[in-house]
Each structure stands twice: as structure tokens, then as C-alpha cells.
Amino acid sequence: MGVIEVGEGREATVGHLTVRRTLPRRGRRTVGAWCFADHMGPADVEEGGGPDIGPHPHMGLQTVTWLLDGQVLHKDTLGSEQVITPGQLNLMTAGHAVAHAEESTGHYRGTLEGIQLWIALPEATRHGEAAFEHHAELPRIEHDGAVATVLIGQHGGLASAARHDTELVGVDLDLHGPTTLPLRPDFEHALISLRGSVAVEGEKLTPGRIAYLGTGRDELGIEVAEDSRLMLLGGVPFDEPLLMWWNFVARSREEIDAAYASWRDQDDRFGRVASRLPLIPAAAPFWQ
Ligand code: MN
Question: pLDDT means per 10 residues in the chain (288 residues)?
């Protein structure tokens, strides 16, 4: 049996939403190149309400947005304007610089729930151009008790068309009964619980918890106590030293200082988002 470490996410507030942050955590900064995971909601959204996360910058990462319920309007400095609904993937590659806003669509009322993930970009592409992809259709595969949707990478012989710059995988699991997942032994993996209750090797996983599973597994058995949703993340262990501050993924304080100054001064680096929401001010790095 491989390693299993179960941890509890911590609560934070993003825009108007409460999130449970399971990555990064002390002692576990990354899973493959996955370096950030916020499970947002479920929250009741009134008409005109929603995430309302105003324009803010990113560098050195990709953002993966995946909804279980509700809808969000993505806008960015590339001119993208994209509504996302459950079952669809928004994937933004920051490269050297991008900014985006996540707004309400204005007419949705009901429940909003989803997960936002970041993927650290490798040295080869982290200084590159920004890009945005929307995937309305993704490959789905049925295991015994599960419907697996492949957001990124390959799983069960199916490949997502979404861009990835390192070897990794991200899969939504909709579980109705016990299931065994195929895994790549050269990947490390983690499971993040979003709904319901499952058990892996006797460890209970409920919303807000993450189970880190290490490398060396070619399959994983999951016991399902009730209908459940989980995210399976995996990838080749990321061996570049990351420095994360606020919305930036970098390698040095100098890089963070430069990005912070560009956003604070609103110079030309990040561009403009056509959003009705106010800009989110940069947090000054603690070392300044
Ligand atoms: Mn963002």
C-alpha cells in the first residue's frame, strides 16, 4: 500500500464566497504541478449576485475553473468573455502576465459551487504569452460506480484536449458506488472531496478534506458511503522551486516584486479587463 496523508482545508473568503483551500498546505505545496485548490460554495446566489471577483493579475500559472452548480462570467485582458456552466472547463494560461475577473451573469439565481485550481507553469512556458481556452465538451468514462470526466490530461484511455505544459491529470469523479480507478504509477496523486462521503484505505474523506496518495500506485479503490463528488489530481512531481505570493507563481522575490509593482502602478504589463467590478489591489509582499 502506498502513502496516504489526509488533511483538512482551511476556510478563506474570495469575493463574496467562502472557500475551503486544500492546496497549498504546510508540508504539501504541490501535487504534480497542481499548486492551489479552492472549493467555493455551495452558496445561495440572488439575482445580480455571484462570485464578483474583480480584475486581478496572475503570472506563472494556469487557472482551471470547474463548476458543480451555477454559472460564472469570465473576462480577461485577452478580450475573452465566457460564461461557464457545470460540465465545462475554463482554462486560462497566465504566462508572463494576464488579468481576469469572475463575475455573476446577472440573471442566475440558485446555488453556486465549484472548484478553482492553479497549475504551476514550467520554466519553458512561464514567461510566455497568455492564452484562454473554453472546453464545452470533455471526455467522460464510466467505471463501475463512477462517472469520470477528464478535465485535463489522460484517464482511463481518454484524453482531454485542454492544454497542459507538464505531465498531469485532473478528473472530476461522480461516485455512486465502490470503484477502482486506474492511476499512473509515475504520477503522484491526491483526492479532494467536494460532496458526500467516501473512504480510501480506511481514511474517511468528506468535503474540505484532501488525501495525498504519493506515487507508485497503478490503481486506487474507493468505498462510497453516499453519492459523492471528488477531484482527482495527479502529475509528475514538480521539481522546480516555486515561490507563491498572492496571485503570482514565481521563482524569486524579485519576480514577485516586479509583478506587484506593475499591478499597483497599473502599467502596461497586465492590460485591462472590461469589468464593472473594481480592481482588486495588490497585497504588498511581506518582505517589502
Ligand atoms: Mn484569478
Answer: 89 87 94 97 78 94 97 96 97 98 88 96 98 98 92 97 98 97 97 98 96 97 96 97 96 97 97 95 91
Residue 215's nearest CA partner among 192, 242, 234, 198 is: 234
Tally Cβ neighbours within 10 Å of residue 230: 28
- SS3 breakdown of the chain: % helix, strand, coil, rounded to 5? 5, 55, 40
| Gap from CA of 63 to ligand 1 centroid (Å) | 7
CB atoms within 10 A of CB 265: 10
Residue 106: what are its φ and ψ, rounded to 5°?
95, -25
Taking residue 238's Cβ as centre, other Cβ atoms within 10 Å add up to: 20
47 burial type by CB count under 10 A (0-12 exposed, 13-18 middle, 19+ buried): exposed
**Measured between alpha carbons, how far is 39 from 197 in angstroms, rounded to an integer?**
16
Residue given cell 484511455 in the structure block: 157
What is the 247 CA–ligand 1 centroid distance (Å)? 7
123 φ, ψ (degrees, to nearest 5):
-50, -40
Helix runs in the chain, H state only: 253-265
CA of 245 to the centre of ligand 1 (A): 13
Measured in Å, residue 237 CA sits from the centre of ligand 1 at 24
Q: Which three cell numbers stand for residue 87?
A: 460540465
What's the CATH number for 5-235?
2.60.120.10
* Count of CA atoms in the C-beta half-sphere (13 A) of 214: 7
